[in-house]
Design goal:
six-stranded mixed β-sheet; globular
């Protein structure tokens, strides 16, 4: 049985713990590896070595740091197929989706390779007579990242490349449910030249999370995951004086106007609602059909019925959910939708896949006539479940979106520029798609979820990540020549 290693002080080693967590294939329930609950002493050692490494790494030339990530992105490209296969074996998503998972993280690595252009300060000459003022963006120190199960390649790559490129050292805690692809990415980072102690990896559940949030030598914590855990991380990390950014739950809506391109819209809705088995924080889980678009119900159902559910390695449309517990929760919420009066158009419960009868499969599920007081609307289902609502007008649809506490992403489908402009201006959500269902920005911008979907002012990648992982130091300087040195004592504020 494979035992997942840790990375501490530049060495991949097996933990001394006596507590191991099973990693299972979601399509078969077979245990494929075990991951440790890292001990307190091992966590402390990882932080201590990161703290020591920071003293040197922070002064490493920025071009040297950039070249490491140039090599790293090349290594990721070289090993793309291997990474996707590892990811699918432990997480369950299709091979195509796994490749996309790796690729979207790769884009952040490429962005980190341009750090010399991103970490530039400011300079103003002669702010007063003979006085110059300039600012520099300096690294914080030891930082930590806590990542979720649904994107075990992309989200770690959101975090440690930007943190390390800006001159910090980093402690990564991958999801204990699928850490193996993350560890392979870490091995490639070491191969690319990340020095000893600059990147460390520890494992486990709540005990490890709490240890990272409490440790006095960790200066910042980045988190992506559920709302409940994110609120805990933000409160605990902030209470101990750390910077914290927590990207959390969502309930993303798509507003469909009658003038939208029907076939393109239907295809995008099906992909965004049911892709990755709905296990995306940016999944479109609510569709609001405006006016005559309400007649598209049967077409939406037909698109969903055409999707194929199978083991991820078979590379069909949907793979399994991550665990039996996740499947049970999704099926329970589907049941509440029926009990609370929503119309179940397509039921994905109880399906089996030949050859994978023990898999955590839930098929595409569609509810019509959903209202805002139902549990299937109020909770993030995190499964392939689409809630359909109706609205008489764009304004009424926007009232529904703005009334939801979450603000991760939303989209409008229309051919009207005026309607799209009104939507982007008046909707109170951080990320907006216009005829695009999952509006996650590329790394030259910033992930900008808002409201209950986010705690902390700055996002996890892009321009905001550089700000999150650095502190601004402002210097005001005067160099005296012989004439200036003849001046007298001045006890007033001089303008």
């Amino acid at each position: 049985m494979h035992h997942v290693q840790q990375l501490i002080n530049g060495q991949f080693t097996q933990s001394n713990t006596d507590e191991w967590i099973d990693i299972t294939d979601p399509a078969t329930q077979d245990v494929i590896a075990k991951v440790p609950q890292t001990t307190d002493s091992e966590i402390n050692e990882a932080v201590a070595t990161a703290h020591t490494a920071f003293q040197t790494w922070r002064k490493t030339p920025i071009t040297t740091r950039a070249r490491i990530f140039l090599k790293y992105q090349a290594l990721i490209r070289e090993h793309m197929d291997e990474l996707a296969e590892i990811l699918t074996s432990e997480q369950g998503k299709t091979i195509a989706d796994a490749r996309g998972d790796v690729f979207r993280g790769l884009e952040v690595v490429e962005h980190a390779a341009g750090i010399a252009n991103l970490q530039i300060g400011d300079f103003v000459e002669n702010v007063a007579s003979g006085v110059d003022t300039y600012s520099v963006w300096q690294p914080l120190g030891v930082c930590a990242g806590i990542t979720p199960f649904n994107f075990p390649a992309m989200i770690p790559l959101w975090m440690f490349p930007m943190a390390i490129a800006t001159g910090n050292t980093f402690i990564l805690k991958p999801s204990e449910q699928d850490p193996m692809v993350t560890m392979r990415l870490v091995e490639l980072a070491i191969e690319a030249g990340v020095p000893e102690g600059v990147l460390s990896v520890v494992h486990g559940g709540k005990a490890t999370v709490d240890a990272l949030c409490d440790h006095p030598d960790i200066k910042a914590v980045s988190f992506v995951g559920s709302t409940k855990v994110g609120q805990h991380v933000y409160e605990k990390a902030s209470k101990s004086g750390k910077r914290a950014q927590c990207m959390m739950g969502a309930k993303n809506h798509a507003v469909i106007l009658p003038d939208a391109n029907k076939e393109q819209t239907l295809n995008q809705l099906a992909g965004a609602a049911f892709g990755a088995a709905g296990q995306r924080c940016m999944a479109l889980s609510v569709v609001i059909l405006v006016g005559e678009a309400g007649d598209w119900i049967n077409d939406i159902k037909a698109k969903a019925e055409g999707l194929v559910v199978s083991a991820g390695k078979n590379d069909k449309d949907l793979g399994p959910l991550i665990s039996p517990q996740a499947k049970a929760r999704v099926e329970h919420l589907i049941g509440t939708g029926v009990d609370e009066g929503a119309k179940l158009l397509l039921d994905g419960r109880g399906i089996t896949v030949k050859g994978f009868e023990k898999g955590n499969f839930v098929g595409p599920t569609i509810f019509d006539n959903v209202t805002t007081d139902m549990q299937i609307y109020q909770q993030e289902i995190f499964g392939p479940v689409l809630c359909i609502m109706r609205a008489e007008s764009l304004d009424a649809a926007m009232d529904i979106v703005n009334g939801n506490p979450n603000g991760n992403g939303t989209a409008i489908f229309t051919q009207s520029g005026a309607a799209a402009h009104k939507f982007q201006q008046d909707i109170m959500v951080g990320q907006i798609g216009i005829n695009l269902p999952i509006p996650v920005p590329l790394p030259m911008f910033s992930f900008s979820g808002s409201r209950a979907s986010k705690l902390g002012a700055l996002g996890p990648y892009g321009k905001q990540a550089v700000q999150f992982y650095t502190q601004t130091k402002t210097v005001t300087a005067r160099w005296f020549d012989d004439a200036a040195s003849q001046g007298k004592v001045n006890t007033t504020i001089s303008m």
